[in-house]
Each structure stands twice: as structure tokens, then as C-alpha cells.
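#structure-requests
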Amino acid sequence: MTPPIRFAVVPILAAIALVLAAMNAAAFPSGSTGYDIGYLQCGTAYPSGAFGIVGVDSGWPFISSTHPGNPCLASEFAHSQSAGLYLNTGFDPIYTDSNHTTSDCATRSANVAGTVSQRAAWAAGCSEAQKDLAYVAGVGIVNPSGWWLDVETANSWCGQPGTSCTDLSLNQYAIQGLIDTLAANSTAPLGIYSTAYQWSSIVGTLPVNGAAADWYATGLRNGKHAAAYCGGAYSFSGAPVTMVQYVTSSTDRDYAC
């Protein structure tokens, strides 16, 4: 049996404070419409909307010389109202090496209950967050309206094609490492972007703690039925759906519940 996760006291207190301070992550006026953009929109016209969520990474879960962050992050953030940030996430056993995992996160993981592999996965998630936090600070962003973790099967995860691991608890621990590290370093609320199918494929029914909201990727072609996904019925992480994505011909749009 997989042992329950018991995390260090400081991350737990930070996560609890985060949820109590903002039960509705990055809450925007109900019924308003915004957008999400990232590195693929570099050099294109800025969309308009009541809010914007901007991608930090360039489609990969680790900031590195091979996969640098979004080169247009600062500009896209500055041109977005009530701007929030989303992070690409993922886990693969190779992320536990010293080229990916920071020494600080490796040290912090010693306080996390679990197997050696689970602690290493937590440290990998912690390292993803640390590298993103450093990149965000490096371009002068200090006050995002919220943080969103992009959790999709398109990135590397145990149990998905192309990875050598099948243990979904390692995905669970990696996501928890991301959440704990963001919560310990920022007062901005935190949510998760995914779908019920993708979330189940990545973590199964294993619990992840500290996220205040779900952002649901519907695949709808307009916002006519977006409100139907709001609330608890379509929750995948256990948090309420507070934002619903739909796709137009020009950009991804998002409905605030």
C-alpha cells in the first residue's frame, strides 16, 4: 500500500493559508471573459479581454538552456488585464537527476513522507516550481493574479507513452511538490488546468492538496455553454471549477464562473 503523504509543516501551513485567503482562485468577475496566451503567440496581436493567463514556459515543464522560458512573458503579462500565470508541468524519472532537480529541493524532500522514489518525484516538482519562480522574477513579474498548473497528458507523466514508469503516485508527488513550493513562495491563489479524463490518467484517484480551483479545458468552439461546466459537477481535483476554457479561431478564451 502506498503510504499517505505527510508534508513538511511550513508547506502545509502555507497551503492552508492560501486556500483560506482565496477559496476561488484568481477570482474574476462572474460571467466575464478573458484569454490564455503563451510562447506560441509571440509576435502576434495582443487579444482583448477582462483578464489574461500567460504561459511561463515554452511548452516544457523545466526552464533550461534547451527549453528556455516564454521569451514574450514580460510583454504578454504587461498587456493583460488582471494577469495570471500558467506553468507547464510533467514528471519523468529522468527529472530526478542533478540536471533537473535542484539541491535545495532535494534537501527539502527529506521532510516529505514517502518512498525514496516518491520523495525524488516531490523534489522534481519542487524544482520545476523553483525554476519557474526564478524566471518570473527575472523578467520583473512580482504580482500575478494567480498561478495555474497545466496538467495534461501531452507532457511526460508516469503511465503515459514514452515514459519508463507506471506508478501514478510519482505524478501525485511531483504535482504536490509544485503546489507546496509555489504556496511557500507566493501569496497568489493557485489552481489546476486539466480535464477529468487527463487528470484521472495522470493521478488516478490519488489526492493532491492545496489547489483552490479547477480550470476546465472543454474544447467548446464558443462560450455559449461554458457556464454549464462551472461549480463542482465537473471538478477533477476536488476543487470547484472557477474558469472554463473554450477555443475560437484566433485564441483560447476563458469564461469566469
